[in-house]
Amino acid sequence: MVENLGHVLYHVLIILFPILVYYQFLNKGAIGITGKVNFRFLIIMIFMVICTMTFPIEVTEGSYYDQKLIPVILSFLYGGLLTGAAVVVSMLYYLYIIGDNHIFVMVINYLILAGLLIALRNRYISLSLKKKISSISFLFLVITATRAIRLFYLNEEKEVFLNVFVSFITWVSLVTAIMIIENLNMQMQLQHELQRSEKLKVVSELAASVAHEVRNPMTSTRGFLQLMSQDGNLNSSQKRYIDISIEELDRAQSIIQDYLSLAKPNKQGMDRVNVSKELVHVVQLMSTYTTFNNTTISHEIEEGLYIKANKDELKQVLINLIKNAIEAIDKDGTVTVKASSFRGMVVIKIMDDGVGMTPQQVERLGTPFYSTKDKGTGIGLTISFQIIELLQGKIDVTSEVGKGSIFSIKLPVETSESS
């Protein structure tokens, strides 16, 4: 095996180099953030698995070693069910073409592995890097142990050490690939957050310097319009025009107030807030709004959920998101609000069965001046994202065109009653 050390390093290069190429030239975002097939990632994984099988390493006479297991695992964990299945099918078909003698055994082995990876992936996404490596290492230990037991059963004890050594090299390559993917994903997310923060900074500076100056003449104009509307000599059309002007001024005032809220986020008044109670109040409040939009609203809220927040700002976020969910429904539909605790976090989900959004639209949510509504400014959602970040929380959005959207708010649980 020492004589083939160069070939082993070459195999490691086959695994790592395509991942770096993918991130440098082909990727536009972090791997694994959507449930749809990422065809660029799929092609890279298929290329990787074919290369490992095309250039195997001969560890002993008639015994060959490759690392095709790595792209299979990465495909399921970071690409999803369809990507993983496509890679496995491509691998098995290639083995069939080259005339592998153990094709039937390979089919059974990789079907079992696929089932384990599918079951693992749902939890894998939410784990920390250390726990991800630990879970994959445990899975790899099980695979290595089953191979060793098989060799003992076939009376090939001499091959056991070789199997362990080869598995160790594969494990090191797999862990290295996972660390590269996770670190590059984190860098892309940080870059995205930095760009978003810069946009917020620009908007905040603009709001702070302009908003007050604009509000003063608007307030005077609104006052004069109100005085004019009381004139008895006006006809109905003139009064209607004045009322429309006042409504538009009020709308402009509301937008300016949003800018001021964005410019000066309130860090004061943080207290222990009963999220369950506030959610019920907001749902009751918005139920009157749903009647005008021919929609219904339901809720499943766990009792006794507490966070540390400003109560008014939390209500503002909840009202903004529920209102957006209601307005996203064209015809009869339902908005569902759920709240529960999970692993030290309060999780609030606001779900609708409305028009949904494309991945590109979801990506731009929360940025100033972007809205999917015709008359929207996007500032309300920007403020909501900012408030949640101020509370050390996070908003995750999943959506599909024609099926609706899910806004998931995750906030740290507040357990101290003295807060």
Any key phrases for this structure?
alpha+beta; Arp2/3 complex 21 kDa subunit ARPC3; Heat Shock Protein 90; two-stranded antiparallel sheet; 12 helices; elongated
What does the model show?
With 419 residues, the protein is α+β, with helices and mostly antiparallel strands. It has 3 domains: 2-194, Arp2/3 complex 21 kDa subunit ARPC3, CATH 1.10.1760; 196-263; 271-412, Histidine kinase-like ATPase, C-terminal domain (Heat Shock Protein 90). Helix content is 63%, strand content 13%. The chain is built from 12 helices and 9 strands. The chain has helices at 5-26, 39-54, 69-79, 81-97, 103-124, 129-153, 158-229, 236-263, 275-292, 311-327, 359-364, 379-390, and strands at residues 57-60, 63-65, 271-274, 295-301, 306-309, 333-342, 345-352, 394-400, 404-412. The strands form 3 sheets. Strands 4-6-7-9-8 form a 5-stranded mixed β-sheet. Strand 8 and strand 9 form a beta hairpin. Helix 3 packs parallel to helix 5 (103-124). The N and C termini lie far apart (62 Å). The mean pLDDT is 81.
